[in-house]
Amino acid sequence: FWSFWLSSVGISFGFLFFFYQREKSQELKRQAGEARLKLLESQLEPHMLFNTLANLRVLIGTDPARATAMLDRLNDFLRATLTASRTEATAGRHTLTEEFARLRDYLELMAVRMGPRLQYTLELPEALASQPVPPLLLQPLVENCIRHGLEPSLQGGEVRVSARRQGQQLVLEVSDTGVGSAPTPTPGFGLSQVRERLATAYP
């Protein structure tokens, strides 16, 4: 009886230890993934800011009045966007609704500088509004559309961002009607950021 009882207790403790170690390992992996996402996000925010300031610098020399309007818009944009992004990321509830709202703020900011040369369309079905995504996931793609697609074109063009459900997949698409990319585009910060953040958030 005692041998059977001790064996049962030993096996039970063995199972408990195994499951405890597995849960601990999964928790550590989750924390490492979250830390990695925060690091990538912290790299993205200054990059976006520096690009915007470079655009503002060009406008200061050509149209001071619009530069002032853009600076006011930038101030409002940074206050709303950076605070909201950090709050939503901390709470783990950054949704496509917030993501599209941030994109609209950014595109309105760029519209101050580009005027009628920049048109945009944001398409978010109501059924996908609460879908969670990493903060500022689409921002680098929209920046690329403006920088490489619309800015080199005298006529400008349209940026289009859409979300749709395709089977079990969420499809997010960012496109523009600008000049198009080079046959062999040089790898840059934006695309590598998006790929790395997706790989970290959804391994």
Topology:
Blueprint: H1 2-62, H2 64-91, H3 96-114, E1 118-123, H4 139-150, E2 157-166, E3 169-176, H5 189-201
Parallel strand pairs: 1-2
Antiparallel strand pairs: 2-3
Helix pairs in contact: 1-2, 1-5, 2-3, 4-5
Spans of at least 5 consecutive residues with low confidence = none
Shape designation: elongated
What integer is the average pLDDT?
Answer: 80
* Beta content: 5-15%
User: Biggest β-sheet: count, sense, barrel?
Assistant: 3 strands, mixed
Determine the N-to-C terminus distance: 49 Å
Helix content: 55-70%
The computed structural class is mainly alpha
Strand order of the largest sheet: 1-2-3
Q: Count the helices. How many?
A: 5
Radius of gyration, rounded?
23 Å
Number of strands: 3
Listing every helix as H and every strand as E from the N terminus to the C terminus, the arrangement reads HHHEHEEH
Task: Describe this entry's structure for a reader.
The chain is mainly alpha-helical. It contains five helices and three strands; from the N terminus they run H-H-H-E-H-E-E-H. Strands 1-2-3 form a three-stranded mixed sheet, with helices on one face. Helix 1 runs antiparallel to helix 2 (64-91), helix 1 runs antiparallel to helix 5 and helix 4 (139-150) runs antiparallel to helix 5 (189-201). The longest helix has 61 residues, at 2-62. The protein is elongated.
